[in-house]
Write a structure and sequence with these properties.
By secondary structure, this protein is an alpha/beta fold. Helix content is 35%, strand content 22%. The protein has 12 helices and 14 strands. The strands form 3 sheets. Strands 8-7-6-9-11-10 form a 6-stranded mixed β-sheet. Strand 3 and strand 4 form a beta hairpin. Helix 2 packs parallel to helix 12. The longest helix has 12 residues.
C-alpha cells in the first residue's frame, strides 16, 4: 500500500448514530497507525466538539475541523492552519439568515456559540433525538449571536444554519450562493454550513500533505456527506459509507458498510488484507 494519510469523517462515518466510537473501529484505527499511516479526523465539528474517544487515540496528532477551516496539532495545542470568514462576510450571512426561522451557530476559534432559545427548541430546527445531547454539551449560549460576531476581528471558522423545512432551507442556500464570497456545504439534509470561499476538507488535507511531503494520491478518504465529496474526488483511494448520500457514492472507488456496521473497520480490512477484525 502506498497510502500515507487516512482522512476520516466522523459523524455518519467513523462514529455510530449515538456519536460513539465502536471497539471494532477503534481497533482498526490503532492498527493502521502501526503501518505508519497518518490518521487525520476531518469533520464539520468544531475543535471543542471532538469526541474524547477520538482525540485520546495515541498517534492521532492532527485534526481538521469546521469543514477544513482549521487544522490543530493536538499534542501541542497549537493551531497550524486556518482559513476563516471575515467579519463583514459573516455579518452578511447573518443578515440573510435573519429573514428565516433558522437556528444559527457560529464557530469561533474552535468553540460553537448559539442563542439559548435555539437550544430550548432543537427539534424545531431539525436536530434528531440522537444528537440533542451532543449539541447541548458542546454549544455555548450567548444572548446575541449577531453582536458576538460583530465583535470578532478574525477566527470565524464557520456558520451553521439549521432548519427543519428543507424547501425554505434551499431558498436560503440559493440566496447565500449569490453572495459569491462563501463556500457552502452540508453534513445532513437540514443544514447549511457556511465557510470562507475555497474552504474545504480537501484543501485542508492538501495543505497538510504538503507539510509531510505527501501527494493526494497517497491519501485514503472515507466519508458520507456532501462536505466529503471534493475530498473523495481528489484522494488516491476514496471510500463512501453505505449510508452516504448519492453524490458521495458516485465519487467513491469503494463503498463500505454503514457506520452502524463499523464500515470504517470494514474498509481498512478490505485494503489491508492482513488486518483482521
Amino acid at each position: 500500500m502506498s497510502i500515507k494519510l487516512l482522512a476520516i469523517d466522523l459523524d455518519g462515518t467513523t462514529l455510530h448514530k449515538d456519536t460513539t466510537l465502536s471497539i471494532k473501529v477503534k481497533k482498526a484505527l490503532k492498527y493502521i497507525l502501526t503501518k505508519q499511516v497518518t490518521v487525520v479526523p476531518c469533520t464539520g465539528r468544531a475543535l471543542c466538539a471532538l469526541p474524547a474517544e477520538i482525540t485520546a487515540i495515541s498517534g492521532i496528532s492532527y485534526v481538521i475541523t469546521s469543514n477544513g477551516a482549521a487544522i490543530d496539532h493536538l499534542p501541542s495545542g497549537r493551531r497550524v492552519y486556518q482559513h476563516v470568514l471575515s467579519k463583514d462576510v459573516a455579518l452578511c450571512v447573518l443578515d440573510a439568515a435573519a429573514c428565516y426561522d433558522v437556528m444559527i451557530e457560529v464557530i469561533i476559534q474552535g468553540k460553537v456559540y448559539t442563542e439559548p432559545h435555539f437550544l430550548h427548541n432543537l427539534s424545531c430546527y431539525g436536530t434528531t433525538p440522537a444528537y440533542m445531547s451532543y449539541v447541548l454539551k458542546t454549544r455555548e449560549p450567548v444572548d446575541d449571536i449577531y453582536a458576538l460576531t460583530a465583535q470578532q476581528d478574525g477566527g470565524i471558522e464557520n456558520i451553521n444554519l439549521k432548519m427543519a423545512d428543507v424547501s425554505l432551507l434551499e431558498k436560503l442556500r440559493q440566496q447565500l450562493s449569490k453572495l459569491g464570497t462563501v463556500a457552502l456545504t452540508a453534513s445532513y439534509q437540514t443544514n447549511i454550513e457556511v465557510s470562507a470561499l475555497k474552504t474545504s476538507k480537501a484543501q485542508a488535507v492538501k495543505w497538510l500533505c504538503g507539510q509531510f511531503g505527501y501527494s493526494m494520491e497517497q491519501v485514503m478518504a472515507i466519508g458520507d456527506s456532501l462536505n466529503d465529496v471534493e475530498l473523495l474526488e481528489q484522494a488516491g483511494i476514496s471510500v463512501a459509507m453505505e449510508n452516504g448520500v448519492p453524490e458521495v457514492k458516485r465519487a467513491a472507488d469503494f463503498i463500505t458498510l454503514a457506520n452502524t456496521e463499523d464500515g470504517v473497520a470494514y474498509a481498512i480490512n478490505h485494503f489491508y488484507k492482513e488486518y483482521g477484525d
